[in-house]
Amino acid sequence: MLIFGVLRSGLYSLASVGLALSVGVIGIVNFAHGEFLMLGAYMGYWLFASYGVDPLAAIPLGAAAIFLIGSLTYRSAIQRVLRAPELNQMLLTFGISIFLQNLAIILWTGDPRVATVSYKATAVSLGPFTVGLPQLLVFAVAMTLTLSLYAVLGRTRIGKAMRAVAQNRLGASLLGIEVDRVYLLAFGLSTALAGTAGLMITLQLSVSPFIGLLYTLKAFAIIVIAGLGNINGVIYASLVLGLSEAFVEFYVPQGGGWAEGVFFLLILLVLLVRPQGLFK
What we know:
This protein is mostly helical. Helix content is 71%, strand content 3%. The protein has one domain (2-273): Orthogonal Bundle (ABC transporter involved in vitamin B12 uptake, BtuC), CATH 1.10.3470. It has a two-stranded antiparallel sheet with strand order 1-2. A hairpin with a 2-residue loop joins strand 1 and strand 2.
């Protein structure tokens, strides 16, 4: 149960850290975050189905493509509502979510698609335990990318600029930082991380236009548990969600269905007991 929960948390952290970046740096909750993950998943599926490209090998191309789509979305829509009331921002991103979901249905229908890679049913031994190779690879890649983002934010010039803008956008602009350029990069990067998580989902699950909403809700639960804008707490919050779901699946009768609602309960408990988040 513990191994299953930990392995699941890797994908959750990668799917959520982009949303945390968007909230922390730009200050906007992107309800279309999961749809960028869905687009990445479809890209991974079609590259595999059409050209035999392994979804893991397609990560650089897929991340670049989703980054470009996210950047265009920012320039054409998000940028226009940054100073608008929060309700306007949420309605806009929710509208983008509905648009992308229905576009996917028109282009690819609602039928689930499965990428059957050669090692999908392969298992490896970890001491006395046996785990699936795809789950292990996804966890390793997801954690590597998440920790790499932490390194970029903590040690690079652009990362420090993002942190400065997140703390005080006016002060950052007075110091010569181009705030709008940082916003563009942060939003594009957040969507690229979501798209990368989608590419790796194709190794484990089927792809459909409807997977985005579920991951948006789970990502939102994780950033609430971590504390809104607290990027460093995303890994720990992902562990909380992953282990909680695994516990329910293993020990609660018919837990497979109940596990999908665990994130609602966690959001409720955190908001009631510690609204600022567990790791902030």
